[in-house]
Amino acid sequence: MAEAAIELVGINKSFGTVRANRDINLVIERGSILGIVGENGAGKSTLMSILYGFYQADSGEIKVGGKAVAIKTPNDAIAHGIGMVHQHFMLVENFTVIENVILGAEHEALLKSSIAKARSELERLEREYGLEVDPDAVIEELPVGLQQRVEILKALYRGAEILILDEPTGVLTPAEADHLFRILRQLKEQGKTIVLITHKLREIMAITDTVSVMRQGTVVATRETAKTTVEELAELMVGRRVLLRVEKGEARPGAVKLSVRNLTVRDSRGVTMVSDVSFDVRGGEIVGIAGVAGNGQSELIEAVSGIRRAVSGSVMLDGAAIEVTGHADPGELRDRGLAHVPEDRHHVGLVLAFEENENSILGYHDKQQYLNGPFLKIDAVRDDARRKIEKFDIRPPDCRLRTANFSGGNQQKIVLARELEQDPGVLIVGQPTRGVDVGAIEFIHKQLIAMRDRGKAVLLISVELDEIRSLSDRILVMFDGRVVGERGPDATEGELGLLMAGVESQEAAE
Amino acid sequence: MSTPYTKLPAWADYGLIPLINLLVAFAGAGLVVLLVGENPFRAAAILVEGAFGSGTGIAYTLYYATNFIFTGLAVAVAFHCGLFNIGGEGQAYIAGLGVGVVCLAFDHILPWWLTFPLAILGAAISGALWALIPAYLQAKRGSHIVITTIMFNFIAASTMVYLLVGPLKPRGAMAPQTRQLVEGGQLPKLGWLLSDFGLTVRPSAPLNLSFLLALAMAFVVWLVVWRTRLGYEIRTMGHSSKAARYAGISETRIIIITMLISGALAGMMALNPIMGDQHNVSLDFVSGAGFVGIAVALMGRSHPAGIVPAAILFGMLYQGGAELAFEMPNISRDMIVIIQGLVILFAGALEHMFRPTVQAVFASFSPKSVGIAPPRAEGA
Ligand SMILES: Nc1ncnc2c1ncn2[C@@H]1O[C@H](COP(=O)(O)OP(=O)(O)OP(=O)(O)O)[C@@H](O)[C@H]1O
Ligand SMILES: [Mg+2]
What we know:
The complex is a heterodimer of chains A (about 500) and B (about 375). Chain A is an alpha/beta fold and about 500 residues long. Chain A contains 18 helices and 22 strands. By secondary structure, chain B is mainly α. Chain B has 2 domains: about 10-40 and about 330-365, no CATH class; about 60-325, ABC transporter involved in vitamin B12 uptake, BtuC (Orthogonal Bundle). At the A-B interface, helix 10, helix 11 and strand 18 of A face helix 9 and helix 10 of B. The site of magnesium ion has 6 residues of chain A, from helix 1.
């Protein structure tokens, strides 16, 4: 048995009445990869935040290399060689990549020489691990996928020996995730220790040595990865059998509800992200758009849902035009029955500082049912929020809690509950199950299919190829801003993967 | 980034930290008093005695507080939308014109209780209009509102000087001010309220009906910000413009409406000195109240329940400070300004200076009592 890199002994942590961690004992072996799985709100992020010094445990002990240490701040953690990549990025949005990487780790008095040094170090890291990012790009202009890479670079740059990754693959495509895993394996070979939190059991099976399952604040089981199965883990997590496959009947497509023609969209820098895209979505079908992050899917759905102005093209909703090239009003589109679950729940879909019930009406706050003249009907809003909490099993079931204090998966459910409960005619949904646990994924998928079966049109964007394949009735593949192919739901992963990499478009050119 | 995520219990957040800030500010002020060779404890006693020791003192304190409640609310409303309205000073000054015009026109014909609502409208509308241009420039052109409102303070000052030495000055008068308002333009004093508590109040003490208007406005602001659709939209915009866009909230519209409200609140400050006390419009009647409003809003955490006590605190400094300058020959008016500056510095601008320490202390005593905000990126 290898020695323990980190030992957690009897860790307890409560937030008010919520016991996020109770009596947790966990050994992380040096040079191994430990996976942690568990339902949304099981306390995974809390535990890792304690290890990283964001929180202090109410009681319990952390041992690094056999010695008990006090980790009061992230700086202590870094000093003990612990690095963390957060579930929610912690980057300065208007800084460049390199500025973010050196932030807090500037070695020289002058920023200029720090940057010069960092640049060569960064180049080495990028080469070694294949984490290419333009060091001078500004963070807010990078797609989420690349922001993720910057987070990893940041930890590596600080010389982390023990790397904690909290749902790192939530934003990556399978190919990118494989890439990440190659890096992680490489790190492991160099003797580094890795803790990986993920909701994707496939990833657990692929890369970890051991896996711990958390439920309601406790570690309920630890298994050697080689000796367990996906089914067993899912059951341990949720406490019941989980349907890991999506069950759905034949689609019965009806009239065209959403029709996109020759749409071209540029991003804030003026780079064309979507060029000349056309497609239809009919009532009663789910159309999935597959693609590697950053190939225009995000801009596409932003334009269609009225929050980004398109350069040219047209979009029809139920036969009437949406002013995508002018002043489209997302509020008006909602009234016309178009709902949108944005990819970025933190900055777009939610106001984190709001109470949960306030977020449960975001965008629908002007609906008559919530209003009494100019006043909000607070009671109606809260009752409504409670109902959604109940139906979507949002935890903790407290509509007065600040949204920032919900776990990542539960925040996602707040957005989904809000949009799905409006029963829109057209639903545009970006990354519906990002950061959501297996039990909730099952639930969300059922809801989306139920919408389809009620004759609604669903446009789905996901970097999760499995999700696209199992939910969609038709799959469009985007590469470099264009739709490069359309496939049926029976398309193989390999086939789609090639399309996503733009291979077919090259063939076509030949 | 030691413990920036610690969240303190409410009593510490709203009670302890402001108290510590105040104590430090007073300690600093005490040092200054010591430096000029006076006894800081006696000075403190005189200050508090001057502000709260007599009915008249209290009436003055609350009179000043009235000004600061209006301007503090004005700054706070803009804060909720993520806007920094530094123009309260100018908005109040120009509103003096609105109040003045209404009163000059009607004080001979109408009783005060009819002039008053008209004057409120005059104040609110002129203050709002003065905020409109910076608001429009911010919303449509992205000109930074801090810069434009500062510039508008200067424009307001010059405009009022021109008007008060010219068109508004009665022919043949020496002072740069309007004629005295007669009864129809004078608000009832509220001294009797304090007399009811057995305090003696000099009839000249300026506390007047606008104080009650200020309290009512504090309630209205709470209502608007936390209980209306408009307030919901303002707060959404203040937290995340991306979320606001997503929610179908027009940025232009909300910025302009918020600034109109903010300007109207700042404008109402003009009622207090003009109709309540001096009964004329004079040069520089705002005398810094617009700026004190920024400190008041910061200290009161942009919440009316915090703004009212913070305004009273600053009222106390104004009134007690005046007494102090009178009683202690070594302490000049300028010294008082220094002391006020220290309070603004510690309680307003450096509001978060002691927070990390307090948090660390809390965390080490009882990690449990400290619910910690998670390490999650928040929309600015
Ligand atoms: N700052 C906080 N204040 C109050 N409650 C909190 C806070 N942080 C976390 N919680 C609660 O603690 C519990 C555990 O949260 P945590 O974020 O650790 O879950 P998780 O296992 O990481 O879930 P997910 O898979 O959704 O990310 C949840 O019920 C959450 O609402
Ligand atoms: Mg988590």
